[in-house]
Design brief:
- With about 325 residues, the protein is an alpha/beta fold.
- Among the domains are: about 10-125, Potassium Channel Kv1.1, Chain A (2-Layer Sandwich), CATH 3.30.710; about 220-310, no CATH class.
- It is built from 16 helices and five strands.
- The chain has helices at about 45-50, 50-55, 80-90, 105-115, 120-135, 140-145, 150-160, 165-175, 180-190, 195, 205-220, 220-225, 240-260, 275-280, 285-310, 315-325, and strands at about 20-25, 30-35, 35-40, 65-70, 70-75.
- The longest helix has 25 residues, at about 285-310.
- The protein is elongated and about 90 Å long.
- This is BTB domain-containing protein.
- InterPro entries: SKP1/BTB/POZ_sf (IPR011333).
Length: about 325
């Protein structure tokens, strides 16, 4: 009984196999092989949580070659690491806890892959909630994230030695998790060099769209976001010279930010201004209110344009797909 048509007779190489630490239960009646690791688990438990395993294990009684140590034997084509994570997440509640509990990138992505492949809805939904929390479909949720500490797996993606956001976007594409892609691609532009984007496992159209969007985000999109800083006082301004000078000074600071060294990640349009920038302004109340209103409008227009930049469906459509996946 196997899902790998090339699986060899286990009796021929039993001594070369390693029993999975913490996933070998003598009183259970199913043995799973992944690479050179064997797992002994409950077939009934797996069947109860995975329709794929339920169908697989409902096949007619196995031939002798499909037995190992007197138990039915299943050879899987997945990596031992992925199967280890999958089984631990399925069997031990504290191994992969619901958001906002911390998780590593390796565990999160393994759970995503395996729960999708073996149709374990509870695990898939749990992983998708972790993912969706960091790649929102609403502007106010994106802005809220800026005030929060990144979870460990996001920090891994930002690390220059980590897998990178492009690895996550490739996985999301393969598993049809489209609603995270606008902000995931947005972060690819913030943390990946153009030559890296061109060499990752994306389709050619995705690569072209990402590179084109990155250039827009570093150029025209930033310019549009900063247009409210041109020194043109509002009608109710009581200190026009001071307000104009302060706006111009802020604009110059923002231009320095957008042109920071290539060794540093560029600031994306939505991340350009910080609270300290607003606090450094010396403008009248009327000008400040006008500036903030114009900036909010610019952010909203930019947010609405992000999916289209990457040739993705609208936020409205993506939110429908997200709701369907998380229901």
């Amino acid at each position: 009984m196997d899902v790998d048509s090339q699986a060899p007779d286990p009796a021929l190489f039993l001594e070369d196999l390693t029993r999975a630490d913490g996933l070998w239960f003598e009183d259970c009646g199913l043995i799973i092989l992944a690479e050179k690791t064997i797992f002994r688990v409950s077939r009934d438990y797996l069947a109860a949580h995975s329709p794929i395993f339920k169908d697989m294990l409902a096949l007619p009684a196995p031939r002798e070659v499909d037995m190992m140590l007197g138990c039915p034997f299943v050879a899987l084509p997945d990596s031992a690491d992925d199967i280890t994570v999958f089984l631990k997440a399925l069997m031990f509640p504290d191994f992969f806890e619901p958001h906002p509990a911390p998780a590593s990138y390796a565990i999160l992505t393994a759970v995503l892959r395996m729960s999708h492949k073996y149709d374990v809805a509870t695990l898939r939904k749990r992983a998708l909630v972790h993912l969706s929390a960091q790649f929102p479909t609403q502007l106010h949720d994106y802005e809220f994230l800026a005030s929060q500490k990144d979870p460990p797996w996001i920090a891994e993606l930002q690390d220059v030695h980590g897998p990178g956001f492009h690895a996550l976007t490739a996985l999301a594409r393969s598993l049809s998790i489209e609603w995270i892609l606008p902000i995931a691609f947005y972060r690819v532009c913030a943390f990946s060099a153009e030559q890296d984007i061109l060499t990752v496992a994306h389709t050619l159209s995705d690569k072209v769209n990402i590179v084109t969007a990155c250039r827009t985000l570093e150029g025209a999109a930033v310019t549009n976001m900063l247009d409210f800083l041109w020194p043109s006082p509002v009608d109710a301004c009581c200190t026009p010279s001071q307000c104009s000078a302060s706006k111009f000074a802020m604009r110059r600071r923002m231009e320095l930010v957008r042109n920071r060294p290539s060794s540093l990640a560029p600031r994306m349009p939505l991340d350009l201004l910080r609270m300290s920038d607003w606090e450094a302004l010396s403008v009248c109340t009327a000008c400040l209110a006008s500036m903030k209103a114009n900036h909010e409008e610019a952010k909203k227009e930019h947010w609405d344009s992000i999916p289209e930049m990457f040739e993705l469906p609208s936020w409205t459509e993506l939110e429908k797909r997200k709701a369907e996946a998380l229901k």
